[in-house]
Amino acid sequence: MRTCALLLALLSCTPDHTTQIPVPEQNEAGVVALAIEHTTQQSDAVFDMHALNGNDETVASVHVRTGGVADVADQLPGEGDRGGSEIVFTSAHGETRLLTRERERLEMLPPSDATIAELVALPSIRKTLEREAKLFIQQPKLANGDTAYATALCPTSELLSSPVAKQCCFQDSLMTRFINPASQFVTRQKSTYGICKASDGGSCAGSNCYYGPYGYSRATITGSGYTEMKVYVVLTMFSVCSPDYGYPGGFADVSGTGGLACGCACNGNGTRCYDSSKSGDCPGAPNCNTVGCPGGGSGAGEWNY
Fold first, then answer.
1. For the segment 229-284, what is each residue's pLDDT rounded down to a tens digit?
2. Domain ranges (residues) in the chain
3. Whose CB among 64, 113, 138, 223 lies 3.0–4.6 Å from 133's, allowing a Cys bridge?
């Protein structure tokens, strides 16, 4: 397991607390307990969860680090010193690593790893991740008449003017999923509250907003070498697009209409603004200096991908 003791020789590592909790649900992976650890590494908040079988062996793990993650500044737009988060899922099938500029709430669909997908669907594990790591993994809503996941082509109004979103899939009208020019898989969550809002729909200021100037969360990226989005169908009830497995989706490459220099007003009025220090435009929006951001802080560029 990733423990503080193993890292002391290499990193500044301060233990917070370690706990073990039972997993009451039956599952094919044979997981019966979770070992949870919070640490501080070089001022970053680190969460590790190990799913253990009856022999106290790790079947799968989830690692979340939030703070000055170096790869975030290297691979995603935005101010470098704001950092972001990395999420790493590990099982016998391999490792999946995701990066995002987001620090407050990490929201995603289940990963394609079958073991991880089964485990994060269990209520005890899902609630633990939400409570301990602010990691929210959506599950299909098929009961009580709820609408199942569905895929469609991406409207240009949901995307930025650059770069081209390759093989873009509009998932359940609540997220865009596509391949970027670096051949990485990109996911963005759409707001149901409108633009420039906190994660719960409340007011927010500038870069502290969860949903940005076009009503999407900051992008999450993973992998490399992707060329095609695919669609897989589960029990004929819902479909999900992913580059990892399924059938060719036939999705188009899309260039959007959103300006690249848009940020969120710092006065909390829930509107976008134009940051003239950024390349690109933000048609029809006031200058960020006039809506409470004279010294910066609008977050312009952080919601780009």
1. 998 876 556 778 889 888 888 899 999 999 999 999 999 999 999 999 999 999 99
2. 1-139, 144-305
3. 64
CB distance 296 to 287 below 8 Å: no
3-state SS track over the chain: CCCHHHHCCCCCEEEEEEEEEECCCCCCCCEEEEEEEEEEECCEEEEEEEEEECCCCEEEEEEEEEECCHHHHHHCCCCHHHCEEEEEEEECCEEEEEEECCCCCEEECCCCCHHHHHHHCCHHHHHHHHHHHCEEECCCCCCCCCCCCCEEECCHHHCECCCCEEEEEEECCCEEEEECCCCCEEEEEECCCCCCECCCCCCCCHHHCCECCCCECCCEEECCCCCCCEEEEECCCEEEEECCCCEECCCCCECCCECCCEEECCCCCCCEEECCCCCCCCCCCCEHHHCCCCCCCCCCCCCCC
Residue 42 corresponds to which tokens in the numbers above?
A: 């070089």
Strand pairing partners for 98?
87, 222
Mind listing the pLDDT tens digit for each residue in 106-144?
988 778 788 998 999 999 999 999 999 999 987 655 444
